[in-house]
Amino acid sequence: MRFFRLTLQLPIAAALFLGAGTIPIQAQTPQDAWLRYAPLDPAAIAKYSSLPRLILRKDKVDSPILNSAAQELVRGLHGMLGGEFRPINALPQQPFLYLGTLDSLGSITPDHISPLNLTGDGYWIAEANLGGKTCYLITAKTERGVLYGVFAFLSKIAREQSLASITEVQVPTNSIRMIDQWDNLDGTVERGYAGPSVFFENGSVRDDLTRATEYARLLASVGINLCAINNVNANPLLLDKAFLPQLRRVSEAFRPWGVRLAISVDVSSPKTIGASDTRLDTFDPKDPLVAAWWQQTVDGLYKEIPDFAGFVVKADSEGRAGPASYGRTPADAANVIARALQPHNGLLFYRSFVYDHHLDWRNPKNDRARAAHDIFHPLDGQFADNVVIQIKHGPIDFQVREPVSPLLGGLEKTNESIELQITQEYTGQQRHLCFLVPMWKEVLDFDMRNENSSTPVRALVSGKIYQRPVGGLVGVANVGMDENWLAHPLALANLYGFARLAWDPTLSTQSIAEEWTRLTFGNNATVVNTIDTMLLSSWNIYESYTGPLGAGTLTDILGNHYGPGPGSSEGNGWGQWHCADHEGVGMDRTVATGTGYVAQYSSEIAKRYEFLETTPNELLLFFHHVPYTYKIHSGKTVIQHIYDSHYDGASRAAALVTQWQSIKSHIDQPRYEDVMHRLEYQAGHAIVWRDAICNYFAQLSGIPDEHRRAGN
């Protein structure tokens, strides 16, 4: 790799006012999230005394994205370092910060040599000697890459990292780094726990889209490039010609931040929207009139929004219309829409969340977990090149722990993306602290062992294993109008963590937690260590008092998916069964005696899960029905582990309160009180969970807790 010749020179720094003493704790503005740009303390400011105060822009065109980048750089540097930072457009005599694309950089230094590995939306940050002056470059091949470079540069300063002799190239692993919002036109958000929609109210796009613009900025700061704004249970009206100008307004709010707009659509739209004389009497994807309808509709959409990203589709699932109505396949339905999008470089995200929610629970061979692979694996290779199969990370539905979906390893000729849930539908609904990055890392690092070779999920979904053109990560965020976006101040670590993994899935959980904590709460070592410890333990704590051993979250699945309800997942057609009875618990998914689900994995993984001895404890009850007296790898019986896990989890939830109290003097009061209230609530609710689950299994099994706690 070749770069500019880098030399360290120390120009005379512009004068900085360094106030004496320690900066007092200031109240935070919650909507700034990790973009606080709070003033650094004097010692930290001194580390950046050589940073130039002039920002050179040599753009060849007026660009909203580059304007955002320049404004953000000035805003961030002024906020953290104080003093004036000034954009200029003529080459100065003094050192400067260069901000712009590589193409424009050539007008300053025609002989520059850019890094060979700088591609796509990647960026390059470097200290360089230009004409005898020590300058800093923030540059990229694309305007969006320049914007990402600015946010990365500011993040380094906020975390007090050294910029001396820096030369860093960052290129995103995934072309798809997408957020899905499940917002409804009336302003509600399905599975959203942070207030009403930032996009819609009263059946229309909001008059004031300030909050949507702020959201786009937040997403851009961590490299998100796509956002679908409405519920996957889609309202067809979004595709109505009369609604398109409203969508255009959202795209205009997104565009300065490099975020492309997408929407969810209903496949029955040709039959349900438009004037009575333009509606069809069918939405059969094989009907030429349906194909023509989609083409005309999509062409009209792109006239309004030329950089529109594409559609998300949920079909034939949970009562949604789909191609099965005409005996057609998901490939038929996806391709007719994808062909309309293709001339515009649009993508069609087709969710693999397709299953029958009226399963007969009395048939031991029925298994909802099989559905996605059974339906989509046989269609591999039949989808258009701009179709992306969007696959939930597990085979059921965002439970506190599931095995990796076998479909992630079952598509070799089809683009895929993995769908992760940032909003905590089954993991505490932002009333409980549950940092999900450790779970996502386990999934992304899991080796599917296709053809007995190393095929980790992160490489499969990126498209790199089978040379697919697009792929990546989709996160269901469901932020709302609450000031801090996701209600619980610490829940924003999940949004940040998702985006960082979408950019680079090899990042460690520890490094992501530390980045977020420093950006959100500052660089005090005690604060960072305490909050990181809380975050990194929270998923395991939540799992311990809700659904250990792979049973899934034993919650009220027939209601709001919150609070204990172990009986609600039995005796109904939804298929989230744990099959508990008087003798034992767990679902038999083996080939030998169960549903055969295990066979959907590669032979190496299937062999691991087929047998009790090799199935990991944490997934035991997902794959096997075992007696309560069965001894797990620790030597405990299953029933005693259930008791012990719930009591231990509740105890550790209470300890989170004590940990938070220990840093009270370092946290501004509004955030301290908000988090404390939620942690105290969680500690109490963990006891509710503990007693409900332990009593349920004590009564069902008839086996007492050897420590005489359960039932007392």
In one word, what is the shape? globular
Structural category: alpha/beta
**Over all CA atoms, what is the radius of gyration?**
27 Å
User: What is the overall number of helices?
Assistant: 19
Question: What does this protein look like?
Answer:
This protein has 712 residues and is of the alpha/beta class. The chain has helices at 42-47, 64-81, 102-105, 143-158, 210-220, 244-254, 269-272, 288-304, 330-341, 371-376, 437-445, 457-462, 492-503, 509-521, 525-546, 603-610, 620-623, 638-661, 669-701; strands at residues 54-57, 86-88, 97-101, 123-130, 133-140, 167-170, 176-180, 200-201, 204-205, 226-228, 260-265, 310-313, 347-351, 387-392, 415-421, 472-476, 584-585, 626-627. The strands form 4 sheets. An 8-stranded parallel β-barrel has the order 7-10-11-12-13-14-15-16. It has a 6-stranded mixed beta sheet with strand order 2-1-3-5-4-6. Helix 14 crosses helix 15 (525-546) and helix 18 (638-661) runs antiparallel to helix 19 (669-701). The longest helix has 33 residues, at 669-701. The radius of gyration is 27 Å and the shape is globular. The chain starts with 41 loop residues before the first helix and ends in an 11-residue tail after the last helix.
